Amino acid sequence: MSWRFVFLYVCFVSMTYRCYICGATELSVPKFRSHLRRHQDLAEIKLPILCLQGNCTSSFCKIYNFMRHLDSFHGLETDARLMESLTSNVNKSPTDATAEPDVSCEIGDDGSQCAASVDSCLDDVRQEGISLVASLRANSSIPYNAVPAIVNSCNHMATSLVHCAEVAVLEAVGEAVDSASVTDAVHEKLKRCHNPLEFLSSVYKQDTYFEKHNLYVKPESVCFGSRFESHAGKSKLVYDTFQYVSVTQTLKNLIKNKNYVEAVLFDKRKPGIYTNFCDGDSVSNHPLFGSVDKFSLMLQLFFDGLGTTNPLRGQSTINNVGVFFYTVKNLPAKHNSSFANVHLLALCYMEDLKVYGFNPILEKFVAEIVNLQQFGFEAELPLLGKCQVYSSLCQVTCDNLALNGILGFIESFSCDYFCTICYATQETIQINFRSEMFTKRTISDYVTDVKNCENRKQGKIHSRGVKRNCILNNIEGFHVTENWSLDVMHIVLEGIVPVELSCILYGLCSEKVLDIETLNRDISLFWGHLTVNKSDKPPAINKILEPGHGLSPSMKAVQCWSLLKYLPLAVGKAVPCDNVHWLFLLHLSHLVDLIFAPRFTRGMVMYLKDVIEEHLHRCVNLYTSTKLRPKHHFLVHLPEIVLKSGPLIGMSCLKYELKNSFFKRCAHTMCNFTNVCHTLAKRHQQQSLFSMLSGSHIRDAVNVQTHISVPAWTLTYSEILCETFGVEFTDNLFIANRVSVGAVLYIRGQCVVIDCDLDSGDLVFGQIVSFVCCEQRDWHIVVSVLQTKQFCSHYHAFEVCNRMPFEYRVVNFDSLVDYHPLHYCKMNKGSHFIRLPYHVFTV
Predict the structure, then answer these.
(1) Is the pLDDT of residue 6 over 50?
(2) Number of domains the chain is built from
(3) Does any domain span residue 419?
(4) 672 and 735: one domain?
(5) How many CB atoms neighbour CB 470 within 10 A?
(6) Fewer Cβ close by (within 10 Å): the C or N end of the chain?
């Protein structure tokens, strides 16, 4: 082989694009883009998308950004020149540099090779069009009737470009050959390139195309019942329906993804540590989940009412929708917070629920769950091979009103027996502050209550809080009296926190410690320096209401949480340390930190019992004019719920409530309320399809937008980098100032929890200096290790300072004690404080 061919081979290899999924190579960016789109259609895209071109370590969360990176940084112009050199010199004789290339072997007389090339190029264009339309239809802010206009515009542009290419070709070769024959040949070849996206040119064609996709689960219209409706003097039969999405088909599609199965099988449990629902006692006693021989998926069911129209307009409740969601509890908590892992079960009108009740929807769900629990379905799992997959209901979580409604209990919290766990009354919740002081509901007592309720003795509509039997009891291993679940978002963040904060602020203002102007000013100044949770800034308080009346204006759950977390740091310098209202605020902060802890030990659960009892005693003694509310009573059951079902944050409705925003935006965008449930269900399933294709279910990828390459010796912390990565001081490293992991953004200057001091037991914090990556390796965090002085109870924060001399450490994201970035707060006197969002400990 001559040196020319060796050189050309090296050039050929150097300009190929290698796929990070299967290792295949393509000669051009369009071919490479289409190759990735085919992986996307098969739901094989794994985030982040890695470049892998040469020594480049860039990563991306979208194919579009990756393609733009290839265009900008990997020499497409150089590739074009190399291709031109390759095609012009490969067939030339070494002694005749001007010889014409022999192309007879490339294009046959019938033009079959050329036809195949045109078909391949058209396939690439269609793949791009499919990806564009899928992303547009998944966007809740874009109406479907706007997508065909975009597609037709792309078709018109493609047709115009074809005409332009046709004219250019005829001008180039028209003088050299017969014009008529060339014109006919070129026109015939390019005619097929007109309107390449015609198959997606209407909403009907798009619906037909995507509904045939093997990952799409089509919503099913199920009849509630029928009624007669009069219109224009005529009566007609009308069927009330709800939309139902098959659980079996959804689970089958989910487990086709290798990353999803890896996350389900990921087991990081440690004895004595409660980190997930799987660690609770309910799993070990369950007939299906307690069996280690079966691959089973645990489902958490959620229900809530949703307003789709402006509530200030007339008849707004007509289009209110009831939403049923579920999540797979086998997944780690960080993945279940993603919208892609909150799956739709059913949509119905709230007016229909009032007429027909929950049973028609729950009957279909129960029938499917019973079949999944007994027989399951056979699937070819990416890691386990062919096996039988089972599933069942493990838990129902809703806000208090919805939970009582779906489980068949009374929906009034101003009377007795409002609790789904015990037989509490309005009188006993004022004096009993431990769970052991209340009589628990049992299955036998529940059966008796149901019978008494059905007999309607003395005209009562309920018997000790039970209104009717719940059909969910037909699922083996589940019973409403053993549904150990309460929503801490509604109980704590939207119930107890605003009520008690109003009492605290009223007391501080009445004692002239604070006033509204100073309070709002200090909070606004503090938020101006905050580097985390900036979007959760609470609104300015316009007046301080009397104890027990809440805050004005009302706040969202995350705003109440943020106000509670940062209020001690924002105004603590102006409050005496011995003020009783301030001490109660600090105790409330301590209680909320424990409730929202992501991990528990059995000792923590016992300690939480004491903290709850003490807090309720303090509240009763300090604010005697305020009666305890039912939400205060729910606190006494939280420790026992942790032992049964794991950390309380796993039962929070926050992720479900945020998911409702998708339907609200869709309803405001489409402005079509003929059958709003049908339209919303279709749009959600389109968005779910796009989530599966884009791989957004498992979002633990490290994404870096901007980075630079610098020699290691130019960095202050070069010694620790060379020791960690095993590189020389002259080697180049990639440096970035901000990265994102899933939905969490890390920025230089923030702090993270990196370790725990074994001698003192204090947490070790590190301030982020930069993010660094060596060739073909993962991104790491470079932190300046801080010294933890003490926990300052007055500010409810850790006081820290820099170590002298500076100590640097390189850590990876998986080794962090907690994944939340923290604010490095600088006080006026030169002190520095770090506030944790909840109680954290190392395992």
Answers:
(1) no
(2) 4
(3) no
(4) no
(5) 24
(6) N
